[in-house]
């Protein structure tokens, strides 16, 4: 697992801080201090790309609607296909009524 490469006390501290956030406004303030606007936008974009891929949107539609490069879309798709199911787990919680489809393997 890729995540094993980043595990450690510093990363644990960061994850624990994220888990301790109480609401959206607190999260906005924390992430504003923690990351650049560009970094936050990149993470947000990847999450939306994952959502759109689960809904079987085309690369072209995803690119046009999110501004993501085909390289970013491909990377997110690889994570959906071969990752730790983190995207699916979170998207399933946020959008329980959206029916994901099984992504074909590349």
Automatic annotation (TrEMBL):
InterPro entries: Trp_repress, Trp_repressor/repl_initiator, TrpR-like_sf, YecD_YerC. Pfam families: Trp_repressor. NCBIfam families: yecD_yerC. This is YerC/YecD family TrpR-related protein. It comes from Metaplanococcus flavidus.
